[in-house]
């Protein structure tokens, strides 16, 4: 029955999510990774070390993180696969590593806030992006929210699901540990350029297939959304993804942009510095609350398609067993 874990985990997390009470009491598994990453970084990424020493410290710290994550996941899996109905417990333990519900809620909060005021929209979007919120007009706030939705569809939903299907509980746990490390230390600034090198490179590797799979899922989802274009979604992904600074993020972003007929990317401010990024899609650049709502509708269709694919995989395994 372990083949039922991926579709049931998707279903449970999408409609129930991670209980806020648990977050308040014990935190979230991703938070646990974050605490360990921060602890090691503060003690090993010191200014007194050379660039090569910081790079080595980052490699060792990442290896320790993954060793702890893998050991814990394998221990839990050994227990769940030795007790009656253990697969249900394993499914419950896999759900926190998916982010369907929280991602949709966070992006919807930006749309709702924009309905109140631009200031409220800036405050809401600052919770999910790193760019300077005060430099954003309504289009900037909307674009930031949609870009986050598109990118996180891949690394927050599709990628963890992919590694859960491929390697079970250890796969999704290891992926989330890598992705958390990249989000915390995989930056190209003075502090993390060397120390976070290994985390950033490994994150690129584990997201390579899921990012492209995400573009495929967006394309398929367009067939279930009357005002979305499957051909433009896939065309934009193939044309524009390679221009993105990330080898992976451009695929879901360009697919969303092409599907919905507007443009993402372009210049934005980080820590007071203007960063000029390539454009994804070739449609309308004036975006607002309405466009966020359309993107959320497409996101829902993508989740439906992913659940369907996961269910078909489980059925195929069941029939072949």
Automatic annotation (TrEMBL):
Pfam families for the chain: CobD_Cbib
Membrane topology: Multi-pass membrane protein
Keywords of this entry: Cell membrane, Cobalamin biosynthesis, Membrane, Transmembrane, Transmembrane helix
InterPro entries in alphabetical order: Cobalamin_biosynth_CobD/CbiB
Pathway annotation from the record: Cofactor biosynthesis; adenosylcobalamin biosynthesis
Transmembrane segments: 20-38, 59-79, 161-178, 296-319
Keyword Coiled coil appears in the UniProt entry: no
Subcellular locations according to the entry: Cell membrane
Record family assignment: Belongs to the CobD/CbiB family.
Function recorded in the entry: Converts cobyric acid to cobinamide by the addition of aminopropanol on the F carboxylic group.
The protein's name in its UniProt record: Cobalamin biosynthesis protein CobD
Gene from which this protein is expressed: cbiB
């Amino acid at each position: 029955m372990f083949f039922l874990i991926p579709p049931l985990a998707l279903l449970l997390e999408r409609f129930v999510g991670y209980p806020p009470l648990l977050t308040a009491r014990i935190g979230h598994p991703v938070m646990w990774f974050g605490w360990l990453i921060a602890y090691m970084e503060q003690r090993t990424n010191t200014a007194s070390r050379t660039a090569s020493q910081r790079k080595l410290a980052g490699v060792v710290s990442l290896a320790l993180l993954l060793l702890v994550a893998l050991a814990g996941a394998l221990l839990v899996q050994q227990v769940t696969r030795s007790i009656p109905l253990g697969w249900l417990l394993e499914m419950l333990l896999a759900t926190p590593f998916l982010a369907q519900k929280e991602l949709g809620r966070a992006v919807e909060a930006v749309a709702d806030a924009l309905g109140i005021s631009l200031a409220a929209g800036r405050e809401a979007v600052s919770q999910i992006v790193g760019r300077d919120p005060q430099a954003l007009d309504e289009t900037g706030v909307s674009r930031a929210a949609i870009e986050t939705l598109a990118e996180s569809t891949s690394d927050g939903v599709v990628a963890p699901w992919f590694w859960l299907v491929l390697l079970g509980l250890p796969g999704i746990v290891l992926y989330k540990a890598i992705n958390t490390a990249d989000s915390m230390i995989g930056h190209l600034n003075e502090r993390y350029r060397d120390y976070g090198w290994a985390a950033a490179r490994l994150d690129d590797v584990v997201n390579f297939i899921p990012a492209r799979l995400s573009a495929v899922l967006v394309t398929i989802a367009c067939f279930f959304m009357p005002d979305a274009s499957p051909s433009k979604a896939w065309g934009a992904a193939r044309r524009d993804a390679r221009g993105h600074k990330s080898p992976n993020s451009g695929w879901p972003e360009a697919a969303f942009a092409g599907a919905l007929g507007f443009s993402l990317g372009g210049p934005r401010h980080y820590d007071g510095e203007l960063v000029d990024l390539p454009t994804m899609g070739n449609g309308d650049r004036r975006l607002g609350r309405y466009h966020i709502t359309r993107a959320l509708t497409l996101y829902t269709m993508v989740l439906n398609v992913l659940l369907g694919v996961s269910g078909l995989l489980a059925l195929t395994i069941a029939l072949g067993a």
